[in-house]
Amino acid sequence: MKKTLLPLLSLIITFIGLILLLTNCTFLLNDTGQRTRLMSTSGTNIFDENGREFIIKAINTGSGGYDPDAPDLENPVWYSSPYLKMKEDDYKEIAALGFNTVRLCMDYKHFYFDAWTWDNPLPTATTPVSYDPGVNAIHAWNYIRDNIRWAKKYGIKVIPNLHSPPGGYQSTGLGEGFWTGDYIKGEFKGADYFQDLFVKFWVEFASRFANESAILGYGLLNEPVPIITLHASMSQAEILAEVQKAVDRYDALMERTIKAIRRVDPNHIIVVEKILYCWDPDSDSQGYYSPSDSGGLGHIFTVLNFPNILYEYHLYSNFNLQYAAKSIDSPLYYSTAADWLNFKQIIDSRIAWSNANNRPVFLGEYGTTRFTSEMELTLLNGSIIQHDLGGEIFLNDILKYITEKRHNSAYFQWKESLPDGLGLYEQYHWSWKGIPSNTRAIPNTAFIDLFKKYFLNVLR
Is residue 47 domain-resident? Predict the structure, then answer.
């Protein structure tokens, strides 16, 4: 009897194993020994934990890990501070607007402040700031856990993104220490020091959240700007060779980080971002080179030989819309024919890369300043403006197109601390114009209505 059952039992076990291999979801054992399903990628698609196709409809929480921008990027803002932080009500409303994901921006120095001590003021009697990294880290990790808890309650996924790594915020070219080294307490530390900290951070993060199903994936590094060295006598070919070296350095760091994460978390999606540009800080404006520009390397992404990788790019191609003039006497308008064609062509090029390489892509940031929106906005002079600056047309064009293409995207951003910013809400940590501090006081209702139209009612 036993001999008869053994082959049948073996076939059943093999069949179950094949089912698990073929399904588009990843299984882990959580702390209680129960199975946890995680999201995954296959070809150009993302799948949720139940194996259903998932289109990212995300909102960014802000930049620099300050949730969102702090007025001074050089000084720390504690996660224990109340202003501009995400709260449970934020997640409730985000879900009600049709978003299904939050791209949660983080700053390394909130977790390990001992690694970021230069150019920061020392504590005084009037500014009794504690620089104890242990205390700071407690606030930071608790804040991440709070966001995950709120996200799960309202059916939202989270992409924790390291917006500012050890060595400096990348996007504006201030983070050269990450690539070339910098001084810590008067002692020079090479790039290896900062990049080691970067890898260690992600290993610790992945170790803490390896079984967390609310995390869609780990966003390794926001808008990387590798450093290059140029000379006046360089030919174009020599410049491109230097840019290629920077691309290779970045790719090697991403591969090293992914391997380190996979040792503690073999299953979560990992989000790798396109290089924003390469830069020589000792050069003039000609020192900026984008590997994907016309006449450049034609480099968009390097295909990484790992499963579950999501490739991210950002798109701010029309800065008259992202950063319009502050003066209402000289508004900048949206030209549908020119501006939208440029924007669309870049999206199309990323989709083409995705299809050609059978990899998923993600528009991780796009947006337009509130000054392009026809809405009531209280300005610094106390006046009210209602100008048709075309922001609604521009955002409608984007949302219509990415909806048609079922393209993964994340708007920048949810809350903003500057009157001319990109936030769907303006929020102040000071009292201003009768607006209480720490409130989401001024909604951009025109933009909010567009997201409800497309994300809540069209793209499900």
Answer: no
